[in-house]
TrEMBL record:
<dbReference type="InterPro" id="IPR001611">
    <property type="entry name" value="Leu-rich_rpt"/>
</dbReference>
<dbReference type="InterPro" id="IPR032675">
    <property type="entry name" value="LRR_dom_sf"/>
</dbReference>
<dbReference type="Pfam" id="PF13855">
    <property type="entry name" value="LRR_8"/>
</dbReference>
<keyword id="KW-0433">Leucine-rich repeat</keyword>
<keyword id="KW-0677">Repeat</keyword>
<protein>
    <submittedName>
        <fullName>Uncharacterized protein</fullName>
    </submittedName>
</protein>
Length: 221
């Protein structure tokens, strides 16, 4: 645990004596520019990893793949390029990627971006990443999951992408985006009442909250 310090570099094999014993690594709020991510697969018991609020320029997502004991992963506010996808993390409950540069083609979250295989996944944080759109099947679908897409650049909530999640009672937060709130979101106001699974703080470009819209405005859609 090294937090709120001036640590800048963690060299190769600096933590090799902990491979088989470390369960939690806290490196939050330092000045880290270099970390040996290639060594993470050696931490067989690692359940918690927090390297948030540092100065990493690149984070390889596949460095975490296969960490079967990992439950919580915090990479937020590095303003880093996050390259690759997250998968094979069967016990993951929290992943926080907020305030980064996800290195996405056309600022679009691709299919299978976060496919951990975990039935315990509860929070995916993707706030403040300039995300323009999300492709269908980008994330695990787990009942009770919360996906935070606040303060991105979404112009709509595509039915093909989000309906499977909302039908599975996944909770979506999308405040601070650029939602036009035209006929493209009419599907949220159907008899299945999927809007209930969208946060009440989510609003349109004119400032009106989705939950305050009159469903009758979509009758001609």
């Amino acid at each position: 645990m090294i937090e709120f310090s001036n640590l800048e570099v963690i060299e190769l094999q600096a933590l090799d004596s902990c491979y088989e014993t470390a369960t939690e690594i806290y490196l939050y709020w330092n000045k880290i520019t270099s970390f040996p991510f290639d060594e993470l697969s050696n931490f067989s018991k690692l359940s918690y990893f927090n390297i948030g609020f540092n100065s990493l320029s690149m984070i390889p997502a596949d460095a975490f793949n296969g960490l079967t004991a990992l439950e919580e992963l915090y990479l937020w506010e590095n303003h880093a390029n996050i390259v690759g996808t997250f998968k094979d993390l069967p016990n993951l409950s929290v992943i926080d990627l907020g305030y980064n540069d996800l290195s996405l083609t056309n600022n679009t979250i691709p299919t299978n971006y976060i496919k951990t295989g975990s039935s315990d996944l509860r929070h995916i944080y993707l706030y403040d990443n300039n995300i323009v759109s999300v492709e269908p099947g980008a994330f695990d679908i787990v009942e009770g999951l919360e996906i935070d897409m606040d303060h991105n650049a979404l112009s709509t909530l595509e039915e093909a992408t989000w309906r499977p999640y909302l039908e599975a009672q996944v909770y979506l937060s999308a405040a601070g985006n650029q939602l036009g709130c035209g006929c493209d979101i009419a599907w949220l106001f159907g008899e299945d009442q999927l809007l209930e699974h969208v946060s009440p703080e989510t609003y349109c470009t004119d400032g009106e909250f989705l939950h305050d819209l009159d469903p009758k405005i979509f009758d001609l859609c």
